[in-house]
Design a protein that fits this description.
The chain is an alpha/beta fold. The protein is built from 11 helices and 10 strands.
Length: 254
């Protein structure tokens, strides 16, 4: 538990959807004031073909999950269609320890996690030892890029199981907080959130006057391309480590 309060009086805005209260508690332990203002809303895509697609999963050698949202949407389908993890013998790959934890919580065993939690590193490090031509299924959202499909040297199929859209109310709330003029940090966990913020908030509040944090290098790249200066990025790409990195930075500049 943090012993100092480097975030004392700091407003810390999470623009993604934290999957647990742990990161909010951590901000409070550092003396900060956390706000959850998701810039994107995520919903499972429910389709009449779900049952057939779910049954097909057992035909693949590997299933790939890159987010906790994909895990949650997949689990909702399993529950609705009364399918258990024992009926899906495929090996499981996850991008990130939090995604892996979500998979293991519902009964899967995760057999591969890249050293850095991003798709571009995943495609370089994912090298199963099986000699035969592998069949791989990527469980994705509607805004996922083509990297996994195009860069893996296997037969890769995709199943889009959730969709992402903007959350306008959060944009307005963030603008109001930033206008108060207090010491504020805005944390970004995805390029999608960056795009929504760039379109809805930046024309009003700009990129200056507050601290900007990015969960990883892909989100950092999106911020830089949008004209922002990224102040904080953790070595390990999780929200918890992003908060820790923010606390260290604030402590250094005090």
């Amino acid at each position: 538990m943090p012993e100092l309060a480097p975030l004392k009086g700091e407003t810390v805005i999470f623009t993604g959807t934290p999957k647990s209260l742990e990161v909010f508690d951590l901000v409070k332990q550092y003396g900060g004031i956390p706000y959850s203002m998701p810039l994107i809303q995520v919903n499972e895509i429910v389709d009449p073909a779900d049952e057939n697609e779910l049954k097909r999963c057992k035909e693949f050698d590997w299933l790939i999950f890159t987010s906790q949202t994909a895990v949650r949407s997949f689990h909702l389908k399993m529950e609705r269609l009364n399918m258990t993890t024992q009926q899906i013998p495929s090996k499981i790959a996850a991008v990130g320890t939090q995604t892996a934890a979500a998979l293991e919580k519902i009964g899967f065993t995760v057999e591969f996690i890249p050293s850095i939690f991003s798709a571009d590193v995943f495609v370089k490090q994912f090298k199963p030892t099986e000699d035969r031509k592998l069949r791989v299924l990527f469980l994705r959202g509607n805004l996922a890029g083509s990297l996994i499909r195009e860069e893996l040297p296997f037969q890769v199929e995709e199943w889009t199981i959730y969709e992402t859209g903007p959350q306008p109310d959060s944009v307005s709330s963030i603008i109001e907080l930033l206008k108060t003029g207090g010491s504020t940090t805005v944390l970004f966990a995805s390029p999608s959130a960056v795009r929504v913020f760039e379109e809805g908030a930046v024309p009003i509040v700009g990129w200056d006057g507050y601290t900007i944090g990015a969960i990883g290098h892909v989100t950092e790249k999106a911020l830089i391309e949008a004209g922002a200066v990224v102040d904080v990025k953790p070595e390990i790409y999780t929200l918890k480590e992003l908060v820790n990195a923010l606390a260290r930075r604030k402590e250094e500049i005090q």
